[in-house]
Amino acid sequence: MEAYKFINSVRIKTPGTSKIKEGRDVDNYALPEEISSLDIKHLKYVFHIVGQMQSAMVSQYKTALL
Questions:
Q1: Could you say which DSSP state residue 62 is in?
Q2: pTM of the prediction?
Q3: Across the chain, what does the average pLDDT equal?
Q4: CA nearest 3: which of 54, 60, 58, 63?
Q5: What confidence score (pLDDT) does residue 52 get?
Q6: Rg (the chain; Cα; Å)
Q7: Quick one: pLDDT at residue 17?
Q8: Per-domain residue ranges for the chain?
Q9: Burial of 11 (0-12, 13-18, 19+ CB in 10 A)
Q10: Largest alpha-carbon pair distance within the chain?
């Protein structure tokens, strides 16, 4: 759950929030140069953890067979 919160916090911190204020459509894209180097390191770690959890779910529930 913390990984999800962190990913969303990075999404909110990027200039995409200015799109909301301007009334434009918001997307989930964040330019890498708009993200701090510390947040990039955390994102890499978080996505690694998410990948491990997804692999565990596939193994546990045999979803790869679907």
A1: T
A2: 0.69
A3: 85
A4: 54
A5: 95
A6: 15
A7: 64
A8: 1-7+35-66
A9: middle
A10: 45
- Residue 13 token pair: 């911190």
Per-residue 3-state assignment (H helix, E strand, C coil) for 1-51: CHHHHHHHHHHHHCCHHHHHHHCCCCCCCCCHHHCCHHHHHHHHHHHHHHH
The structure tokens 């918001």 sit at 26
pLDDT number for residue 37: 95
Q: Is the separation of the CB atoms in 27 and 63 below 8 Å? A: no
pLDDT tens-place string over residues 11-40 = 777 766 667 778 887 777 788 888 999 999
Q: What is the pLDDT of residue 16?
A: 64
CA distances to 1, 10, 54, 56, 65 from 31, rounded to whole Å, are 24, 11, 25, 30, 35
